[in-house]
Amino acid sequence: MRATTAFNNLLALPGVTVCSVEFTSDRVKVGVRLRRRRLLCPEDACGYSTPFRVDTRPDDSWWRSLDMGAHRVVVTARLRRLRCPDHGVLVEGVPFARHRVRFTRDFEDLVAWCASKTDKTAVCRLLRIAWPTVGAIVERVVADGLDEARLDGLVDIGVDEISWKKRHNYLTVVVDHATGDVVWTGEGKDTAALDRFFADLGPERAARLRAISLDMGKAYPKSAAKDGHAPQAEICWDPFHVVALGAKALDVVRRGHWNQLRADAATDVARRFKGARWALLRNPEDLADRQADSLDAIRHTGGAVWRAYKGKEALRVRRRPARARGRHPAGPLVRLGATQPPGRLRHTRPHHPRPPRRHPRRYPPRPVQRPRRGTKRDHPAHHQTRLRFPLRRCRRRPRDARLRPRHVAAPP
Predict the structure, then answer these.
(1) pLDDT digits (tens, 9 = 90+) for 273-284
(2) Which of 18, 127, 332, 369 could potentially form a cystine with 8 if both were Cys, beta carbons 3.0 to 4.6 Å apart?
(3) Is 201 left (phi over 0), alpha (psi -120 to 50) or beta?
(4) pLDDT tens digit string along 73-94?
(5) Within 235-303, where are the H helices?
(6) d(CA 98, CA 101)
(7) Hey, how many other C-beta atoms are within 10 angstroms of the C-beta on 11?
């Protein structure tokens, strides 16, 4: 009696009463019975109930619940069958498990949470289930727990794709910029994938969209511009791709200028300019001393390379924290193509190679004097005399004992 009461409070299964508890070497078998008298259709969207039954199943139905330490917990119940006018003869539904599923809802919720937080091997070993079972459980949990009102009130959204299996499969992901939550996903990365999102969104909610942030591909803007989708929304390009195009254009100008210097037979100037690639592509605040010197020389020289560098810096969107405001000039890009001064250059300093870092408790190695190559010291006069001073082997050696050579006799 105490065991059944304890398991009734521990499992907390709604609408059931624990009747029996059986312990074995590897599992715990808990027998329950339903409290309600009316039979419910197991289909979620049906809701049909009746007090009449067709028959009672001869065998107990079972479901796996949350484990109790190293023991698996199995819930069993004797169920009845009913005749639904829409679905025919079915086994009555239970409140703690889904229809035709051998796991309780609590167990499936735990599996879905672990699948989103850890890797495949850890989920399978911890919960002792196969990986295909994990995928099926995640699909059921997402289908039941997905909010139907997640597409309401969308104003600013972002669309991008992700890939898996070495970029052979793609998913289109739609994000709400107001909350930062993912509101829709679909297979593919083409125009048809985003068309399915607008079909689920509907023309009324799509008309409220104000801005859509996209990458610089051709598929997503084509879908957004269709009638009934969001032709009124403003297309905002991803700043990452915009800056990447500016960096590519700068690299094209740099290569053209380098080839021109090589054609003019200015070998030394072309060799020095060849090392200025990363000085132009990296951020000004992240430059090394030599790169800062190269960028300073390009600024004094001017020309097409410096103009391209200023255009690349104008495309960068600088987001400064609140506490850093007032210490640096304003940097956000207001209008595409607006010219802005480049970032501050670091002051040039003489370049000194830094010594290799070592552990604070590790002493530097001693300098070893080695003879020059080709010189041999075979003469015995070059070798230092080596003397061995063995200690006297005794169990207890006094502290004032001195080292004595073998051929020297001890004083009387």
Answers:
(1) 777 888 888 888
(2) 18
(3) alpha
(4) 999 999 999 999 999 999 999 9
(5) 239-263, 267-274, 277-281, 289-301
(6) 6
(7) 20
